[in-house]
Amino acid sequence: MASTGVKLGHGSKVRIGRGATPTWTQLSGLKDFSHPDQSPPDEDVTGHDSPGNTEENIPGLFPAADFTLTKDYVPEDAEDVLLTDLYRARGELILVEITPKGAATPRIWQGYVKKWVGSMPVKGPMQGELTIRVMAEVVA
Questions:
Q1: Closest C-alpha among 67, 70, 2 to residue 37
Q2: Closest C-alpha to 19, from 116, 92, 82, 113
Q3: Chain segment 79-108, per-residue pLDDT in tens
Q4: Which end of the chain is more exposed for a tag (fewer CB within 10 A), N or C?
């Protein structure tokens, strides 16, 4: 471990929760991924009486964001069946749980599967691209 405490991301986890009392499925074969970026936009609130001839801004709402990752694609395995079902459900709300390596508490968002597409290259492993549109972060 570095003096700052930083570690490799290897071993980080993503799980999908489905249902009112979620049934959790841990995704396997994940490649690089990041937390969803929900940086709020700045909203211009400049008025004729803004001080110092300067623009004024306030933070806007947290936007819905796309959480995209690449994972191993194994046709018709349990994960492919789940992700295909969720994609075809067109908007069924699910939970997405991300636990970075070494974290005691995961972060969870509510969202829906926007895209699940497998690719079959001539050379190299089959991979799938998963995009989940995340909305509110679920805070316990």
A1: 67
A2: 92
A3: 999 999 999 999 899 999 999 999 999 999
A4: C
